[in-house]
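Tutorial handout. Part one gives the primary structure; part two gives the three-dimensional structure as tokens.
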Amino acid sequence: MPATPAWPPQSTPRLFVETALAPGELRVDGPQAHYLVSVMRMKVGDPVKLFDDVSGEWLGVAHHVGKRDLVLEVTERLREREAVPDLWLCAAPIKKGRIDWVAEKACELGVARLVPVLTRRAVVDKLNPSRLRAHMIEAAEQCGRTALPELGELVKLAALLRDWPAERALFFADETGGVPAVEAMRARPGPAAILVGPEGGFDDAERAAIRALPQAVGIALGPRILRADTAAAAAVSLWMAAAGDW
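Part two.
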């Protein structure tokens, strides 16, 4: 006998919604409705996977499809919200496009919280939180994630260090050298954060202030010079590997 096709199909579109999900009807409008109706050509009876960053992933079925909106019948929960490793990424703002990429990769790699940190050599001193969150949502939709990183407000480095939690290790990418990253991370298990500077790196006073923090450990990311966005993704990947998440 032929195998029963998987339901919902692997090609089912995924959608993040701000509304807390539960069985019942859900109206979708705006850009999300345009995507489902005009791009995906959704018809009555077609499935869509939904997630809300709280309760996991749910199955919705198109109940009514209009020109500018549609009504989904949320029928069942497919998965609980995934467990997220207790890792923060604290990153200095970099040029538009590159910081968007950092937000995407933070989501894809499983970071729990993304904190933009203003440093002296940062060439960007303002961010668009809505745009960064949109990039994280798109990454989660495409990669099957059921959780989003929390997005912190832009904070000055001095304030970040002043209020640093006592129980959280801070691994900072030190371009002047440090402990090999994996070695340092394995030696300090538990809640952690990675701090990456801007294109020009930290200045001497900033580096001294970071090193003065008892929870801080300077780490080296290998023999090659990395761009700020590459360093962020590389450091997160190394921590995930050291923590056993990969």
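Part three, for discussion. DSSP finds seven helices and 13 strands in the chain. The radius of gyration is 21 Å.
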